[in-house]
Amino acid sequence: MSWGFLRDLLSGVNKCSTGIGRIWVAVVFIFRLLVYIAAAENIWKYEHDEFECNIKQPGCENVCFDHFFPVSHIRLWALQLIMVSTPSLLVVFHIAYQENREKHRKQKIYKSPGEIDSGLLCTYLISLLLKTGFEIVFLVLFYKLYNGFKVPHLVKCDLRPCPNTVDCYISKPTEKMIFLYFLVATSCLCMLLNLSELSYLIFKYSVKCYLKRYKKKHQ
């Protein structure tokens, strides 16, 4: 899969972000996207082939694997990356709309299209809320699907067509668990950065509005 579209999308939003927003983009690029492409994808590449049970009953191994891994960690991580980055499209579309409107009217309508202090603020805040919401949803989803943030060495399966309770072994469980913890940590960090930027922007523009009203009142 090509991740070029994600790079271009985040680079476009980076132009109008605050300092905290730029840190978020850097974290997504370096600690999530590059780690996914360079290492994590290869670790889970043959997870089904390397999942072994101590019985050769036809269908038993497949049923057990599907039960313990209903969705692949790596595919869920990829979906999370896409969904978390998608709200940035709102900001890109808003900037494009402003620029297109000025182009058609052939006059300057906005003070500075693309700057966070224009009408872009509301759209930017909504995108931050959506990013934070998606992070929370996927963390809860990971926790519910896998009964916590862990990868066991051994799982016991008694589903049909298995004739009895069989032991199944997961390949490279320690390595997978390390990357899973890394995933959770970077997701929490991105969530913290989003909330920090949201608080900063609300505080900054609340102060700005208050100062304007105070100035008008004394004039």
From TrEMBL:
Does Iron-sulfur appear among the keywords?
Answer: no
> Domain named Connexin cysteine-rich: which ranges?
134-201
Q: Indicate how the chain sits in the lipid bilayer.
A: Multi-pass membrane protein
Gene Ontology cellular component terms for the protein in this record: connexin complex
Q: Which GO terms describe its biological process?
A: cell-cell signaling
InterPro entries recorded? Connexin, Connexin_CCC, Connexin_CS, Connexin_N, Connexin_N_sf
MF annotations from Gene Ontology: gap junction channel activity
Sequence ranges assigned to domain Connexin N-terminal in this UniProt record: 42-75
Function of the molecule = One gap junction consists of a cluster of closely packed pairs of transmembrane channels, the connexons, through which materials of low MW diffuse from one cell to a neighboring cell.
Q: Which family does it belong to?
A: Belongs to the connexin family.
Q: What is this protein called?
A: Gap junction protein
Organism listed in the record? Bucorvus abyssinicus (Northern ground-hornbill)
